[in-house]
Amino acid sequence: MSTAHKYLDFELRIDELGGERYRATVVDMPLGEDQAQVINDFVLPFAGDELNRTLAVLSGRLRVSGTERARVARTFGEGLFKAVFAGPVYTVYFSSRDRARMVEGLRIKLALEQAGSLRDLPWEFLRDPAVDYLALSRTTPLVRYPRRMVIRPRPAFKPPLRVLVMVSSPSDMEPIDVQAEWRNLQAATASLRAQGKLELDLLDDASLRTLQRVLRAGDYHVFHYIGHSAFDATTEQGMLALEDPFGEGSSFAVRGEDLARELSEENTIRLVVMNSCQSAVTQETDPFAGIASSLVARGLPAVVAMQYAISDRAARVFSEELYRSVADGLPVDAAVAEARRAISHTAGGIEWATPVLFMRAGDGYLFDFGTERAGQPLWRRLPAPVLAAGIMITLIALLVLAAVLGFLPDGDGPDQSPTADLSIEQIEIFPPRPIPGEKAAIIVHIVNNGDKTIGPFDYDFREDVLSDSPDFVGTVSSLAPGDSLAVFIPHAFTWWGAFVSEVRVDARSDIPEIDEFNNIRRNPIVTTNEAFVITFDELPDGAPVTESMPLPDDAFAAWGFELAAVPAEDSDCAGAVPWIIVEGSTRYLGTGLPTAPDQCSDAGLAINLVRGTIGGLVAVVDVDQARTYSLTAFDPGGDAVEEAVENLTAGEGELSVSGEFPNRLDMARGELQGATGTPLRVTRLELAQPSLVGRVLR
Fold first, then answer.
1. Residue 94 φ/ψ, nearest 5 degrees
2. What Å distances lie between residue 384 and 379, 391, 398, CA to CA?
């Protein structure tokens, strides 16, 4: 077997938690055995009607322009990526991808058996906003990787790749032009067959009985099905519409598990391609009821199924590139990635995401190519046309190199014009693990590697690489050749966990450089687990509070929470809002009417979490005389899960809810209430870390 294509694995399991909440857990990654379990709880960033419309557009059920369909695909893919690959999951994904650059790439394995309603989302559209669609690159192949499966031994492979084709067109269903489909597949594989790399055989009739006989008589590597399929909600089974085995031509429903039984009898069948509608659909309570999942459940190492209808042109291009890549010895996930790009380049649109790869071959290889091929020198393994082209390219490259080095008499000699090259050499942060809300010092070392002075130029900083806009922008007036400069960026990280921060220099590429790739540098940063302490001397944007002011709802949204007044029984206070009150050197949080802070100052305060949940809350209040105060914690479902009631004496008093809630749910909202008629004066809030984040990347 060829060892030219080695991948590192990044396996992500998606679990449904209930209440429209889900959990992404990294269960395998190339970062060492002692790495703590990495978890991210999330909700889908799409409302029900929005999601339904999005899926209708992506599937083609709702007709829109090609431009609109591409826009919806990108928005969906990036939204899904940001939700699932958030915080610590993205940090280890980024680090894993960086490590995988030393080999072919990072294989993204999705375990979706327990994902509930998310199982049948078109995950193939996952798109890293900082890079591209994962499934479109051979360096990040994306596969659906069921874990409860039998793994079959890998047989030796001797060319050609033998493909058995079944085209099913029962007389009582929408007709399929069998001969046209057969001609399309022949045309798609013509060059491969001419080179002796592939053979195609067409079944005489599309019945399960004929398939059984043919498989028993000959060794095939691939089974390729073209026809109708559906998911039967009554029987909860994936069904194929094959032809009646008694020769009457009408349809005969065959369950996915029946087809799997026949194909799994022959170990030489390593790949199944299902060119039929809904062949990728699984069922909510039994993830193996779908056709594709039934096949891999019986040990088939790889199944390609279509989650939507696919055009003839896209299917032809996909088949050609898939079989070419598999016959050339690529892992099947890399082969599918190549075939996706071929669709993107030729058919256009978003049909490249229609094929879904279910894979159980651990390393992606379907066959053992043997020692004969692997032991040959690389040039002996190349086809003659490729070898000839390679020799020609090498000669041209040598001539170009000679010209660049001045060995050819072109009259002018090599170009001696000055060159520009800025690079980011290092990012440092002090303290190394900042407390959320604490102003940290980020030191960025910029170097001019070129031979001319550069400037002015901008640089910017993003707390998280997925941010839509920078959190800080600065300018350097000039930098001499060979010089370095350390720039200081003050920044407060506003939540717990792990961030992949990014610094860019000359982000708009205003300066032509010989190397633009070293203008961006990313750095994982992990905050401490200490409490996030909020006083009211300044707002999240760093603006100092110098006078009393009413607060808009989103005044503290950048710090992960919003404030609101809880109206008292007096209906005149229904319009109360939070205020920051300034009295000399003291600042405290209270309530009042928008134009009168001294009215309705006894309304309660709600602290609503918008960035996630917290593990506990402390409120410190300024008490003018002995009073009773209460602090109530609410879970994400809106239920009160803990209440602290304290009789506080004059001075500063403290109330806290610990976060030890039933069912280990974190807190999504807190409400602070004082006695009726007593102004509420909060001098400090302390948010405790979410319970899961504390176990991540410590």
1. -60, -45
2. 9, 11, 21
